[in-house]
Amino acid sequence: MYTGDSNTKDTAALYDEHLQRLRELLTVSKPFTFILDDPSGNSFIEGRCEGKRNMDPKTDPQICVENYTRDAKHNALLGIDTMCTENYDTTTTTTNTDTTVPYCDDKAPQYTSTHTNSPHYDDTVQQYTNTYEK
């Protein structure tokens, strides 16, 4: 990664310092604390304690998860309070189809839901698949 040719030498030096700090974090040359604040609640932390991949964060002694309720400041940052809801059309068409997972040995049952006419999206189709046990 490089700075553009329109940047000053001072800006390039700051950028290089920042990259060096990131490299040190990647090599874990010294201990550090990483704080992730996600008011949307859509972040997931993966533990890698003692070489074990995909550990449950609840069992990793180095991970501390603190859930909280969003406040007005968080809602403003996410644009929730300023959403335009005039002429909001809540009609959606949903189709559910029972199918099987084609590449699984046991042909696991699943259902696929397809939504059309979704609010906030023009001319789109949203589709998701969920596997379940009967």
From TrEMBL:
Superkingdom of the source species: Eukaryota
GO cellular component, one term: nucleus
UniProt cross-references to InterPro entries, sorted A to Z: ZPR1, ZPR1_A/B_dom, ZPR1_jr_dom
Transmembrane segments: none
Ranges where the ZPR1 jelly-roll domain occurs: 7-80
PANTHER family the UniProt entry points to: ZINC FINGER PROTEIN ZPR1
Name used for this protein in its record: Zinc finger protein ZPR1
Organism: Lygus hesperus
Organism lineage string: Eukaryota, Metazoa, Ecdysozoa, Arthropoda, Hexapoda
